[in-house]
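Can anyone check this?
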Amino acid sequence: MSEAPVQNGSYQLAISKDGTVGVQLLGRIDHHKASGMIASLQADMEARQPVKVIVDLNRVTYFDDFGVLVLNELRTYLETSGVPFSLIQPPPKVGEVLALTNFDSPEPCEQIKPLKIDSIIVRLGDATIHQLYHIRYLVSFLGSVVMCAMHVITHPRSLRYSDTMVLIQKTGVDAVPIVGLISFLLGLIMAFVSSIQLEQFGASIYVASLVALAMVSELGPIMTAIVVAGRSGSAFAAEIGTMRISDEIDALFTMGISPTLFLVIPRLVAAIIVVPLLTLFADLFAIAGGLVISVSMLDVTVSTYISQTLKALSLFEFVWGLAKSVIFAGLIAWIACLRGFQVRGGASQVGNAATSAVVSGIFLIILFDSIFAVIRSYW
């Protein structure tokens, strides 16, 4: 025999003479009722001190993870008192939720273990091994690019000319507006700032010399290379990285096609062709920007400005700037393709590769430009 059921909104209790308490959950068990049910059930269990608890879920109309939380809290509370806990065979939908949350496991809600922090020596060693692996891959990739470039020189027909022309258009032609605008504004700013100082000494004519020398030998190649690294370097890394995670590069290996020859060399050739041309455009637009300031603010005639520009420039300065732009182009294409080949994982790694390609490209541009400056100073 059992006592009369005890009603409580979302559940009712049936207490037997032998101390067994039957808990029948009713209606919806969701986030609106979970917290109240947990507190109420624990209070009822504490008041009645059951020998055994049986939970009946047959009259539950809605059950989700908050219902699982109610059962888990009740079971945990009873286990601390050594009271057995069991469920009457639940309905199919409730059983699916219990199975998804692994309710029958001894520890369905395991605590997250704190991360173990390794010692500084372990982290240093791990970072060293990681960097050595990347250096090995970098050298291997560089050797592959050099060998494929030599193969193209000795076998010109192996170069994919159609893809190279498309890449020339994307890397060079499409970049002309932004390179021209940036260079024009840079030349305009340089002329404006320098004119404030030079005009005090009556040397306004040398604004043309300053803009021409600075752009042709230094700023023209650097600014053009930075723009190309941001536009095309990131695109190279993203394209190759996407092919890596979609197994297209593995497919090239399977078909006996060299991925370096197929993907890297056309991009390298396109960059080496268009970056020097873009540098020439950058020089011309910067000189035009200086011309605008000189004519409008310094009362320098157009012919005088052009004459002073040609007088300041030499063949060495012109060739030096173009030579640097060729080196920068090779660095941009090489590091961008390398970052693309290093992609592992999912789509987020493609974005990381594109970002790394831009940052690494700009770093290499500045590094090699400083090396060229030291070489020129001791030439």
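Reply from J.R.: I decoded it. The radius of gyration is 37 Å.
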